[in-house]
Description:
The chain has one domain (4-152): Ubiquitin-like (UB roll) (Roll). The protein is an alpha+beta fold and 153 residues long. The protein is globular, with a radius of gyration of 16 Å. A hairpin with a 2-residue loop joins strand 3 (50-57) and strand 4 (60-67). The longest helix is centred in the C-terminal third of the chain and has 12 residues, at 112-123. It starts with a strand and ends with a helix. The protein has 6 helices and 5 strands. Strands 2-1-5-3-4 form a 5-stranded mixed β-sheet. Bound molecules: FE2/S2 (inorganic) cluster (FES) (2 copies). One FE2/S2 (inorganic) cluster (FES) is lined by residues 106-112, 144-147.
Amino acid sequence: MRQTIRFYLGEDLCTLRDVSPTLTLLDWLRERGRTGTKEGCNEGDCGACTVLVVRLEDGWLNWRAVNACIQFVSMLDGAQVYTIEDLGTPDAPHPVQSAMVEQHGSQCGFCTPGFVMSMAAYRKTEGASADDQAIDDALAGNLCRCTGYAPIV
Ligand code: FES
Ligand code: FES
């Protein structure tokens, strides 16, 4: 039986047929040139590959930060996926991107797209606060090896 998957990548509707059940979103994105989503550990531990996955749940849009390296494309039917390329531009950065620049939250930059996507998802979370502990929890899945976490938080 042929299987068809439909989801949005940014504002573009993607219709895929006969997707391998082992194809990860990370591999699919990078093969399409969306290389802002980084490959680090490739096993869900570092957060470099974080993207936003939006789903309608109970009449409400639920925004989640998801590790693309452990997200199978075949499970995205009905979702909308945003990558770092969808978030802002050099002339019109997302507020999280602006804050990362202003607070010196990036050095080598490898982890930065993942942190930005996690924080962008957190901003969409009902009841999100600027409380340090809540932010630490929201960023618990993202690792940075050079900046240190204080400027990022
Ligand atoms: S590459 Fe490390 S969590 Fe995906
Ligand atoms: S800025 Fe280099 S790993 Fe975070």
